[in-house]
Input
Amino acid sequence: MAKNFFGHEIARTDAKALPDLLKARFPMGNFLVLTDEESAAVFEPLLKRLPKKLFAVWREGDDLLPLFSEPDKITCAVGIGGGIPAARYFAAVRSLPCAAVCPSFAPCGAGGGEICATVAGEKTRFPVPLPNLIAFCEPADGRGLEEGRAFLSLCAVQTFAFSACRRLGVGEEEKGGEGEKGKSGEKGEELFPLFRAAADCRGTEGETLFSALLTAEYCLSRGSGGEAFALARLVKKYARLSRADTFLSCARAFAGLCALFFGSGFLRFGKADYNARRKEAERLFPEEGIPAPEVPTQVRLLSLAAAFEENRAALFAEISALVKTLPPCPEEKIRKAGGILRFLPELYGGGISALMRDFGLL
Output
């Protein structure tokens, strides 16, 4: 496989052939190789064949500032697995070429347009160009397959939420946060068909699945994200589930609630206690900085109710069909995601969940 991904090369290789691929693509390379602990055991012995390299293990949350004490003679940054965000940051700051090596199907940040990094003790989001080379080392044991499919399942749920918001005239205005996120703005509208197509590949495998994961990451970082991924960020932070369980529990909890909403929901005037909800959200999530609620007028609520009645049957059919395609997830984990989902309107600031609250149903 040798494909073009928005002007950048994707190459399929195996771990043993990786040194030759890197030397061929970057013949004058003096490599800085950053990897996670799991990948280090596999790749460090193999990459001894590179004539010039520095090898370092990077853990999520590690400060990147010490990397810049490395000598200026480095000419290419290579990220492997969990080391990809660090390598992309280093390459972007130093204006160097970058190679991202993906040793599993788990989303690893190779396709996004920005990374979250800690630099000099400060956590920040930093825009980065796509890697010059994305190398896919397909694992024989299918490592990361469950997580990759769970990620695309959440993408599928977000495409539904995005479409429902457009039809109902509901905006998505995220108050902030980190992780996979975005707004349903102009760029998101342009990329929505591509994002939907990627989500529809969640039942595939091999090169097709990997390409879909990269495409979804690309779209998410450029405006196709929304409340489903805002929920995932919060569940990962507060429920402390694995990434695969986070994606899947959020997909199940959010899709299930949407099915209930469009199946039997209705407007209940005066039932949403905005101030009480905000106080409870502040108590449960003290680090999130809950803004003052925006209370819709009665005229606005009636307009939303009319749009809801006009579209609810079609939306119920769509979400019901989607729920049937989602992989199973333990109820205990779905409940954890559901407990946070209840306060998503306060934590996120828009979308279908806010409409449920405004209707007095959340």
